[in-house]
């Protein structure tokens, strides 16, 4: 009596309509205790709580927890850092260093916010001309 006769566009469709239960975006989670060696590339967000020795290229946002560690080069769109990075960090958008962040090496970012307690040592280049 009150049912709609319209067909459900998600049924039988090649491009189903996302349901309320489905995530709207994807992300990679590197858990504490995980160690990655080599080059890591992703087109999705990354949450780093483990350790990476090598390179990471993230075409979206890199979020690093307090236990996260990277030894090597990082290139990403935006970044929020609580852990430790030793190497070159290139952020094409906003870099946010939170209170527990520790960076040793070269920083290149379009914009940067540094919270009280964060530390970095090395060259720091801020502005759009440094991240093209």
| Helix/strand class | mainly beta
Bin the helical content. Answer: under 10%
Uncertain ranges: 4-23
Biggest β-sheet, characterized? 9 strands, parallel
By DSSP (H or I, 4+ residues per run), the number of helices equals: 0
- Beta content comes to over 45%
SSE run: EEEEEEEEE
* Structural domains: how many: 1
Shape: globular
Radius of gyration: 19 Å
Q: Based on the structure, what is the oligomeric state of the protein chains? A: single chain
Give the termini separation.
60 Å
**What is the count of β-strands?**
9
**What's the pLDDT, averaged over the residues?**
87
Describe the SSE topology.
Elements lengths: L26 E4 L4 E8 L2 E4 L2 E14 L4 E13 L2 E14 L4 E13 L4 E3 L2 E3 L6
Description:
With 132 residues, the chain is mainly beta. The chain has one domain. It contains no helices and nine strands. It is globular and about 30 Å long. 22% of the residues are buried. The model is unreliable at 4-23 (pLDDT under 50).
In summary, what is this structure?
With 132 residues, the protein is mainly β.
What labels would you give this structure?
132 residues; globular; mainly beta
